[in-house]
Amino acid sequence: MPVNDLVTYGFRYGLNTKQEINVSAISGRLNFDSAHLFRPHRIDFNLMIWVKEGSGVHFIDFKPVKIEPGMLLFIGRGKVHSFDPDGDYDGPSVVFTDEFFCSEERNMGLLYYSDLFNNPFGLNSQRMIADSSLFSFIFKELKNEIKKPFDPYQYRILHNYLNNLLLLSIRERDVMVFDNRNLSGKDLEYITAFKQLLETNLTKRLSVVDYAEILNITERKLQRVTFNVLGKSPKVIIDERLILEAKRLLVLKSDQIRQISDQLGFSEVTNFVKFFKKTVGLTPSVFRKKNYKIV
C-alpha cells in the first residue's frame, strides 16, 4: 500500500508574477517536476490539458483516462491526479485559480456549474471534434500575453482568452447547464458558499440543517437552490463529496480503515463501512484492494 501522505500543490507563478494564470507544454511541466507529478497529488488550482500528440493513461481521482491525440482534460481544483511515467503525450496546458476566473459573479456559472470541472466522479475528458485552429490560436495568444509586461488591460485580455477557450470546450460538449436553467445571482452565491463550507467542514459531519443555518437560510430554501442549480439535494452533494474523500484516503494513504473512519468524522467504523458500501457497492477494504495499484 502507498505510505506517502497526499501532497497538495498550489498555483506557481511563471514569468508573469501578477496574474494567476500560466500556460506551458505538458513536457515542460514534467521536465520541471516529474518526480512529484508522476505521483498522485491534489491541486489547488484548475488545469486544462489539450493532448496534441502521443498516448498514455492519466489518472483522475482513481479513474484511468486513456489519452489520445485531440483529447481535452479538465481537472478542477481539489482533484487528485497523476501523469503517466510511461506515457509520451504532449500538448499545451493552462492552469488558473478560481480567484483569477471568478473576479465577477457572472463568471461563476462557467467554472462551477458547467460540467467541465464540476462533476466530482466524472473523468472530465472529451474528444475534440471541431477545427482545432482556434484552440491553437487562443493558447498561443494566452502564452504571448502572459509574457508581456503588466498593464491595466492585461487581466481582462487574459480572462477573455480563457473564457473563450472554456466556452469553445463547452460547445464541443454541447452542454450549457448554467445557461439552460433559470439561475439567479443569489442562488449562485448560495451554492458557492455552500460548496466552500462543505470543503472546510467536511469531516465535521454537519447536517443539511446545519449548513442552512450557517448560510442563514431555511433548509427548504437550500434544497430548492441545490436542485435548481445542480439538480441534486444537499444531502446527495454532501454524501458524494464525503465518498470521494474516503476513496482518496483509502487509496493514497496506508491508514487503517478505523483511522480513516475517524478522520472523516464517523463515530463508529461500522457506520463508515455501511455508508461506503451502500454508496459505492464495495466495502472500504475491497475498494482499496481493487484500486491501490493505480498509484
From TrEMBL:
PROSITE patterns: HTH_ARAC_FAMILY_2. It comes from Pedobacter lusitanus. PANTHER family: ARAC-FAMILY TRANSCRIPTIONAL REGULATOR, TRANSCRIPTIONAL REGULATORY PROTEIN. This is HTH araC/xylS-type domain-containing protein. Keywords: DNA-binding, Transcription, Transcription regulation. The keyword Zinc-finger does not apply. Residues 192-290 form the HTH araC/xylS-type domain. The keyword Transcription applies. InterPro entries: AraC-bd, Homeodomain-like_sf, HTH-like, HTH_AraC, Tscrpt_reg_AraC-type_HTH. GO terms for molecular function: DNA-binding transcription factor activity; sequence-specific DNA binding. SMART domains: HTH_ARAC.
